[in-house]
Amino acid sequence: MQILITGGTGLIGRQLCRTLLADGHELTVLSRKPGSVAAKCGASVHAMAELGEWLPDRTFAAVINLAGEPIVDRRWSARRKQALWDSRVALTEQLVRRIAAARTKPGVLLSGSAVGYYGDGGDTALDETAAAGTDFPARLCQAWEAAACGAEAHGVRVCRLRTGLVLSRRGGLLGRMLPPFRLCLGARLGDGKQWMSWVHIDDYVAMLLGLLHDTRAGGPYNLVAPQPVSNAEFTATLAAAVHRPAPFVVPAFFLERIMGERAALLLEGQRVLPERITATGFRFSHPNLADALSNLVR
Ligand SMILES: NC(=O)c1ccc[n+]([C@@H]2O[C@H](COP(=O)([O-])OP(=O)(O)OC[C@H]3O[C@@H](n4cnc5c(N)ncnc54)[C@H](OP(=O)(O)O)[C@@H]3O)[C@@H](O)[C@H]2O)c1
After folding, report:
1. How far apart are CA 60 and CA 99, in angstroms?
2. Which residues, in sequence order, are CB contacts of 40 under 8 Å at separation 6+?
3. Ligand 1 center to 161 CA (angstroms)
4. Are the C-beta atoms of 274 and 128 separated by less than 8 Å?
5. How many CB atoms lie within 10 A of CB 257?
6. 163, 176, 197: which to mutate for ligand 1, most atoms within 8 A of CB?
7. pTM, whole model, 2 decimals?
8. How far is the CA of 9 from the centre of ligand 1 (A)?
9. Exposed/middle/buried for 129, CB within 10 Å: 0-12, 13-18, 19+?
10. Each residue's pLDDT tens digit, 15-61
11. Residue 245: what are its φ and ψ, rounded to 5°?
């Protein structure tokens, strides 16, 4: 299958590319640094520097849309929010315009979103029918999903990937948390009651492959493990996995002071359940956090 991937050079994209190449697919990755694509994604992967290179007579059987500026790294100034928006919503709108122009349409578009779609969910268990939130990440996810749904008007099957916290030994959340935890500096955040909906990257990629090939799949999917945990439990489980104590608490007011509005990403959460992917018969390799972490940190 010829597959176009945006964000293919990222944490998820690189593992996805490895798996798709091993399955014999031919990949093109859109990247702002096309010269880095072969090294990051695989020697046989084609690089595309801008979507304008996708001419109408070029056919992709599938498009996987994962591009987006990192959301947690920098303070959310108005300019930063615009960059977060443009790299997801504007890019997805552009992608849908290329799909509309293509003479032969892709069969499927798998397009990014996040569990932040639901806003601060408190203790409520959230399946895909739960209402969207109203804060900035929630509005961003809604607009990102709405842009992707534009492809449906062209007969394309669209799956919206409401992604949880992806756990990988190669970076992301775990890449940030492991160094302090290994130095006995692990800490609960605020009161530790906020929910964390996590997923092992191997399960995440396996879910994407399932959605790619299952022609009945469409609509929103919560891509999370079936056992979300509180921040306090996540902290204790990670500390146990690295055999270190995590005695500290980072007070909420401190995070709010240094991170501003972004602190909500750490102090609020969502208790998200993978109802629709489970209904497809998907079997998780790592449904339990302790098992997932021991696999990743060993
Ligand atoms: N990892 C998680 O825990 C998690 C959780 C929820 C949602 N997500 C979403 O899932 C997607 C993939 O996650 P990830 O962890 O693999 O992300 P990542 O490692 O940060 O990679 C994102 C990719 O997006 C591209 N990108 C960044 N800024 C861009 C811009 N301004 N314009 C165009 N492309 C840009 C980059 O590609 P180039 O540098 O090659 O252009 C980069 O490789 C992201 O959209 C993220 O928001 C991830």
Report:
1. 9
2. 8, 9, 14
3. 13
4. no
5. 10
6. 163
7. 0.98
8. 8
9. exposed
10. 999 999 999 999 999 999 999 999 999 999 999 999 999 999 999 99
11. -75, 155
